[in-house]
Structures are given as structure tokens and as C-alpha cells.
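Hi X.,

You mentioned you wanted examples for the new student's onboarding notes, showing what a folding record looks like when two proteins sit in one file. Here is a clean example. The first protein comes first, with its sequence line followed by its C-alpha cells.
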Amino acid sequence: MTNRLTTPSKTAQADAPAHPLVSVIIPAFNRAWCLKKAIDSVLAQDYPHFELIVVDDGSTDETRNLLAEYAGAIKVIHLPAKHGVSAARNRGVAASSGTLIAFLDSDDYWYPQKLTAQVDFFNANPEALICQTEEIWIRDGKRANPKKKHKKLSGMIFQPSLALCLISPSAVMMRKTLFMKMDGFDESLPACEDYDLWLRITCRYPVYLISTPHIVKTGGHEDQLSSAEGLDKFRIHALKKILMSGLLTDRQYRDAQEMLKTKCRIYADGCMKHGRRTVATYYYRLAEEVEKKPDPPADPLDD
């Protein structure tokens, strides 16, 4: 298959096989303040053949009571304690019955045509494995314009994805077979788990873009994972994993090495600035050693 996508037409849609069941997974931890809007945006989809699975990741707020209001309309999985967003998403997929998987973060929401647009895309492009839609950003309650570096691309996007995430979990739909082949999200990562999965996917498969915005991403709140400090530590871990995976072409390997060195130095500089000299020294050394041998030394996530 080339990286050229087919735009769904009325004929293509009419001739498509029976629509597959889509499984939508929402992980939630203490997000009662925004979860209702996310759930309602899924239930308002104009594509009818889906199931919604909400994974309550050990919430201690009003999440359980909120979910009880949707009894019969959604599936709910209550985890007894917090396991993290990766485990919550993986648990949701394990309980799913759809052939297509879509994720929605509990602080984001969809427009009503989101599922229809992506199911139509897969029906028109049966060899495609993963696609995402464009998105609208809201930060602190106001519309925000993404910077040029955040521009979403279509096709083989491994190299530009090394610097930062160019795929949004809330915008993605993928075939369940792909998710299972990739072994899902890495549950050892408390953050940047999506960056890790996207690297494993984009080094091998094209990710297609539907240019119409179908989701709203919100940000600026205190419990937003992507705004936490020290995220480069987890990106470094993901880069080391992909370098040792045996999946990369020579060009991809060299590009990932360069990005690993860059992120190690950036993280080390930040540690040094905050007086964490031992940790900084480790990452400075790692940046130097990655040029000397293909397998850099392992590092603990807890430093």
C-alpha cells in the first residue's frame, strides 16, 4: 500500500462491507469534573455501531457515582486501585469486542461525526491500519493555535515523531489487530506512554490523517499528564527501547540516536540546574555512550 489515502465517496460507502463494531476506550482517574462531557460526546455520535468502555482507574472522587448514571448505556470497569493510564487503556482493549479501537482522554471530547469519518476512511482504505483526525485546542478555556512543530502529518512519520508526539490518543482509530501486535501501551511508563507506542507503530506503518477536526483537546488544568515536569526522562526510556527493538532501518536508527543524545543533554541540563548532579552526570554520560555502542546502559525510571 502506498502512502496515498483514498477519500471515502458515496459509492465506496455504499459498497463497503457491514460496518465493524468500534470499541471506544475512556480511561479515567478522578476526572468526574470533565468525564461527563467526554462520555456524552461519544454517546452523541452519529455512527451507531460502537461500544463505550470506561475504565475507572481507582478513582476516589465522584467518578463511580457519575458512571452509575449511565448504567446500561456503557460498559464500566472499576479497578480497585490506580494502575496508570496505560494499564487502564490496555484493560479496556482486553475487554473490547470491536475490530476497530478508538481512545478518548477523559478531558477531551468529540464532535458527532468523528466515528463516522474514521469508519468511512477504513472502509475506503481496507489496507490502512491506523488514522487520526485533526483537532482543535482549548487551553485555559480559550482557543489556542498549535505551533508549526505540532503540525500533524500523514504517511510514514517516524522521523518527525521523534521530537514530540504528533499523534493524539483522542484522535486515533486503529485496527485492534495492530494494537495487539504492538503489545499495547507500556505499563511501566507513568507518562509518555503514547509517545512510546507511536514510535513502535510509525517506524513500520503509515499513520493517515483526516484533515477535518473532529476532536477538541483541552489543556491547562493541574492534573494534565502532558504538562508534568521531567517528561523527557520517559521519552529517553522510549527512545532506548526503540533503538534496542531491532525494528529500525539504518536511517531510522541514526535519527533515533541523534534524538536520544539531544534529549539526554536537555534532561541533564535541567537536572543540573536543579542541583541533581548525580542524575545529570548519568544522562550526560548516556549521551556520550550512545555514540559508541548500539545498546546504551539501562537506567531506572526512578531516579
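Then the second protein repeats the pattern, sequence line and then C-alpha cells:
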Amino acid sequence: MIRLVATLAMLCAAAPAALAQTDIYLKTERGGRGKIPIVVREIEGASSREASPASSITGVIRNDLDYSGLFETILPQAGFGAEGDMRAASAVFEGKLSSDGGAYVLDALLLDFSSKETIFSKRYRFGADGTRHLAHTVSDEIIYFLVGERGVATTRILFRRVEGAAKNLYMVDYDGFGERRITKDEIAMSPVWLDRNRFCYSSDRRDNWDCYLVDLAKGTKYLLTQWRGINMAGSYCAARDEMAMTLSVNGNHEIYVLNTAGKVLRRLTRNRAIDISPSWSPSGSEIAFVSDRGGTPQIYVMDGYGGSVRRLTRSGSYNQSPAWSPKGDLIAYASREGNLYRLKLISPDGLVEETLFDDNLSYEDPCWAPDGRHIAATAREGGKNYVVVIDIDTKEKRRLVQGEFADWSPLSPERAPGAGR
């Protein structure tokens, strides 16, 4: 998701294992501000050795459920459990942590608050270095069993941070923990996840904007495309196993479709204008992109073969960075108003449009979480860029890290939570 202004500037410059389980699916009703009230008890440690990790796991689970935007966590008070106490709660989570050799074992239990019926009961075995991941996994289980949707607590976010003359890529857990640097002394751009372990990005380390593919599981990185000019990853479509990219191999910025071996499968645009920032629809049937073919940068949509092109945005003189929701119902983009960029949502037919915030911050380069509810975007505040996470339903916003150009990892395609591991 490369900004048009950045392109013009460059042109001028040249798992935890579930050992046992009992599952019951219950429908929950949301109360209050549309959030499900849930009691999360402090996890009990079998001995003093487990007290600290038990407390840490409890805290992470509570934060995950709050961050989801779906739940309101309730802290149990003294005497909790008497009739009338916490009568608004829908469910209760509790657990016991014990040690088994060099590993920990968590016995987790989720109960319906009113009936005390077991929703799920599972045992997790994990190492001392897997405490946070275990907590994220349990949080996603709770979300799945109560709401029927997969949570995003185990996802990660790629982003870029300016460090002097370098602009390096970093990776961080979805909640801002576990930050680590991926590149060193590069000018990196446009990180795009392909799956849970692989991503592409562009770099000028060879004095050309080449595209690299990184495999975190294998610890490898290799050149994917290296045509003279711009090789900019844009969007990966898992449904088609195809990647939409911006290339200037023939002198003009056009959109192409490639496979993950770097082979060009087809060219989608043929226009004297600049065509950039492709974003696949979830089904792979359409692509949103930016073009100034009408005189100003606007969001357009075409099919997966470059046909049926239509202009989507009608308002705003400078629109950029489209990102198609994984649910397929919305496209996020940035629209310039005066000296600021507003974060907007528009339906694929263009009939419904919404501005998320009308404050004094500038928002650019949105990307979606795989739940289709949260967006990570670059917010400029006090002369610095920050990656912020936004809940589009509640409009809650939290600052994640200092950085820009975020991309959110997908969920694992293996098994849905609750199916055993």
C-alpha cells in the first residue's frame, strides 16, 4: 500500500497443545455498549512458583478481551458468586496453573454464568517462554466459543520505522509486545504478508526498488523481482495464490499479477496515468487501486483480469491507499482534506461512506486485521508517525508503536479454534 506522493517522490529521485477438551457452544447476548460482559477470575497457581506466570496470563487474557471490542471484562469482587452479584455477566473464565517438569500446564474452564454449564474445558501444556502466546491462544478460544468468530490475539503486525538515514522493517505482536527488527540499514517500503510466515517488501539496497520475499520459518530472504525501476508489492490474494504488484518495467507505473516465484502472470492496467496500490477483494474477483487517470488520485475498482474498471470515490481531490476488508463489505482509504488525511470507509458499490475521525491527526496507509473489525493505520502526531489500532465499531483507538506502513498478518489456515490442536 504505497502512497502516490511517495511514488512521485521516488520518480523524481529516480503453538500450545490442547491435551484434553470438552466443548459446548452457547449463544451469548451483548449488553451495555454492545459488549459481552465476562468475568475473568485470577488464574490460580498450584504453588508459589506458578504465581507470577498465572498473574501474567490472567492480565494478558483480560487485555485481549478488552482489545477485541467484543467484551467488557469484569473483575470479581469479594464474595463474588452470591445471587445477584454480577448478574449482567454472560460467562466466567477461570483456570489453574501447575508445573510438569520444565513445562507449565494450564487447566482452563469457561462457564456460562447463569447455568454454570461448561462451555469449554481444556488443558494446555507450554514452555516458560510461551506464556504470552498461551494467553493469546486462550483469549482467541474464548472469543470463538462465545461469539463464533476467530480472534486476532495471535497475529502480528509489520511496520516501518525511520532510524536516521535508514527506514527498517519491524515486527510486533498485535498488542504491541515482542517487537523485533527485521531489516538493518535499508530503506524498506510496502511490507505485505503472504501467510503467517512469509511476507514481501521493497528495498533500494541495490540502488533499485527491488522486491524481496522473506520466510520467517526458514530464516531465508531472496529477491522476488528486480526489474529496473519500481518493484512494489501491493496485495496478496490467498484465494487465488496471486500477488498484485506495481511495476514500472516499461517506464510507467502499471499493475501486474505475479505468482510467489516472481513470474508475471498478466498485466492488468495499460494507461498513461499512474496506477498503483492494488488491493484484492477477499474472493479475488476484484482489485481496488489508485489512479490519477481522471486528473487527481482516486480509488478505482477492476476485475482480477483488468476489466470492468469503474471509479469508486467521487468526493475528495486526493484519495489513496485502498485496503479491502477481509469481510468484503468495506474498503478503507485515506483522503486528503486541507493539510490532513482523513481515514474513510466506503462500500464496494460506493453507496455508503463514512469518515472515522474528524480530529487534528492525519491518518494514512490503513490495513485490516483478519477479523474485519480492526484497522491499523499511520497516525501523524507531534511531528512523529505512530501505528494506531482502531476498532471501526466502537471507534476506540490505541497507539501501538512508533512507525508507519503497517501490514497485519493473516490467521493460520489450519484449524479453527475449538477443533483441537
